[in-house]
């Protein structure tokens, strides 16, 4: 006779049946179960959001292998900090904030001469050591500029410029009107433009 493990998942089900059952569970419930120490629930959170986080981090660090490392570390941080998440239904945006902090922290620790693996966006000239050093310095300057933004400005800018979400999608993620998103982004861009003036 089958027994019930995770809510909605019956022990003895096939993996595809388990995956289907987990896919129907809300982020809110998954977070609550994860906070209670349920690794199956947290595994579903990882499965559900890792692809977006990986693509997002890759656009920051420019390296597939480094992006994988950063995302893994971001989930380690998330697991430890889950009890501090005030709105479990907002876990996606929360994970993206952790991923961005980890990614830019990684950039700050990266040796200036370390090249990017993103050859699809770089030419042989771009890959020269001196150009790589300049690129890394620009990213460090951007990281510092982002640190000076308010939390909502930083989140909106990253979701727009890095994750490439639409204004409507950002509004949904941040639970604010699209018109407010435009205002927040306008202030964020103005601040970054001032901070990045020497790179223009």
From TrEMBL:
It holds the Pfam family Sigma70_r2. One of its GO terms (biological process) is response to stress. Residues 140-191 form the RNA polymerase sigma factor 70 region 4 type domain. Keywords: DNA-binding, Sigma factor, Transcription, Transcription regulation. InterPro entries: RNA_pol_sigma-70-like (IPR039425), RNA_pol_sigma-70_dom (IPR014284), RNA_pol_sigma70_ECF_CS (IPR000838), RNA_pol_sigma70_r2 (IPR007627), RNA_pol_sigma70_r4_t2 (IPR013249), RNA_pol_sigma_r2 (IPR013325), RNA_pol_sigma_r3/r4-like (IPR013324), WH-like_DNA-bd_sf (IPR036388). The keyword Lipoprotein does not apply. One of its GO terms (molecular function) is DNA binding. Belongs to the sigma-70 factor family. ECF subfamily. This is RNA polymerase sigma factor. It comes from Microbacterium lemovicicum.
């Amino acid at each position: 006779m089958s027994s019930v493990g995770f809510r909605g998942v019956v022990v003895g089900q096939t993996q595809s049946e388990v995956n289907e059952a987990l896919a129907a569970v809300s982020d809110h419930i998954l977070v609550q179960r994860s906070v209670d120490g349920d690794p199956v629930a947290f595994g579903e959170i990882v499965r559900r959001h890792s692809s977006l986080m990986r693509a997002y981090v890759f656009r920051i660090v420019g390296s597939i292998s480094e992006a994988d490392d950063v995302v893994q570390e971001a989930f380690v941080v998330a697991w430890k900090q889950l009890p501090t998440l005030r709105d479990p239904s907002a876990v996606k945006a929360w994970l993206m904030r952790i991923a961005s902090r980890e990614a830019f922290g990684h950039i700050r620790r990266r040796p200036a001469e370390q090249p990017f693996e993103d050859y699809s966006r770089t030419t042989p000239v771009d890959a020269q050591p001196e150009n790589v050093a300049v690129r890394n310095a620009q990213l460090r300057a951007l990281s510092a500029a982002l640190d000076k933004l308010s939390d909502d400005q930083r989140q909106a800018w990253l979701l727009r410029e890095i994750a490439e979400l639409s204004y409507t999608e950002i509004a949904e993620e941040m639970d604010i009107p699209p018109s407010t998103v435009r205002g927040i982004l306008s202030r964020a861009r103005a601040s970054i433009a001032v901070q990045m003036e020497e790179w223009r």
